[in-house]
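Protein data:
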Amino acid sequence: MIINADDFGLHPGINAGIIAGFKKGIITSASISVNGKAYQDAVLLLKQNPGLDIGLHVTLIEEYPVLGAEKVKSLCKQNKFYSKSLDFLSRYFLGLINMNEIEIEVAAQINEALKSGLKLTHIDSHRHLHLLPGIGDFILKIANKYNIKYVRSGRFKPALKMKKRLWELKALDFLGRRLRNRAGNSHLKSSEMIFGFQWSGGLTKSLLIEIVDSTETGVAELICHPGLNNRHISSAYPQWEYNWEGELNALLSSEFKQAIEDNDIKLVNFQNLDEEQPGV
């Protein structure tokens, strides 16, 4: 199982939580937003904590474009990306998004990461926008170009008792399976199961145990959002209503670690998937 923390680089409190989870041996991978307000802080932490697997968290909403708004006008309102995924999606389905602008902005984000000396092992995106047709095709193309072998795709799995956000989960599952098939055709790889979407910022010990109990044989990715100092992060991102500290504490709990052991789950990252053939 890959335990992958999203939103690295968006806020110092998120960065600190991810590093704390990595140091405790639970978080094995993180996805970084190069246009996040705390990106340089994240790069510094990575230099101080070598070994954390890093992927690009393509970010096309809420933050500022790397290229500047003038070069990606269809993605922006005034000088910033649209603040809500619904705004982006409505423009996407109305054909108001210039796909060439997506292409050059994603390339700019990758180049920003490489310029900082980061070795990228995987690509995913903020609010999973990379799964959308057209956008996903370009992500696969650019992953091949930069020899990035893993793109988040595959089955988005619910835990057995969870009913929250089911229609969104089914949509992501459909798009994730579609992209995984296309990724396979492009000689790229992905995890086979993705957990955590339904509980973004709200993972608890009981939910984590339910997830590992329902994990099948294969490579599973658990998406998580740990952090420290809820008050400061919430002042920057009040719309998310996440419990970053609560999620970090659940991930670090002895009960979750015991469930991992009881289910014979091996914690890995994207980089060492090529070095061995893990069970899950």
Remarks:
- Strands lie at 2-8, 29-32, 53-58, 76-77, 80-81, 120-125, 150-151, 155-156, 193-195, 220-224.
- The chain has a mean pLDDT of 91.
- The first strand starts at residue 2 and ends at 8.
